[in-house]
Amino acid sequence: MICSRCWRDRYGSRSTIMTSQLPPAKWHDQLGEATIADAILDRILHGAHRIALKGPSRRKEKAEA
Q1: How far apart are the C-alpha atoms of 34 and 28, rounded to whole Å?
Q2: pLDDT tens per residue, the chain (65 residues)?
Q3: How many CB atoms lie within 10 A of CB 40?
Q4: Angstrom distance (rounded) from CA 37 to CA 13
Q5: Backbone dihedral angles phi then psi of residue 37, each to the nearest 5 degrees
Q6: DSSP labels for 1-65?
Q7: When you count CB atoms within 10 A of the terminal residue's CB, does the N or C end of the chain come out lower?
Q8: How far is CA 21 from the centre of its chain?
Q9: How far apart are CA 43 and CA 4, in angstroms?
């Protein structure tokens, strides 16, 4: 998995920004395998700073304009 190699190589030495439209709580349902989802979330969220954005979609606003 290319992403895991990137995170491993950068861990502790560089910042990495990751975005997702799916909240981490719903990853288990999407991945279908709880063990894999737990492993991925443990590696991604450990030491992470999470920013949850709330409010209307900016894409919808632009599409309606």
Answers
A1: 5
A2: 577 787 778 877 888 888 888 888 888 888 888 888 888 888 888 888 888 888 887 787 777 76
A3: 19
A4: 25
A5: -60, -45
A6: -HHHHHHHHHTTTS------SS-GGGHHHHHS-HHHHHHHHHHHHTT-------SS-HHHHHHH-
A7: C
A8: 8
A9: 9
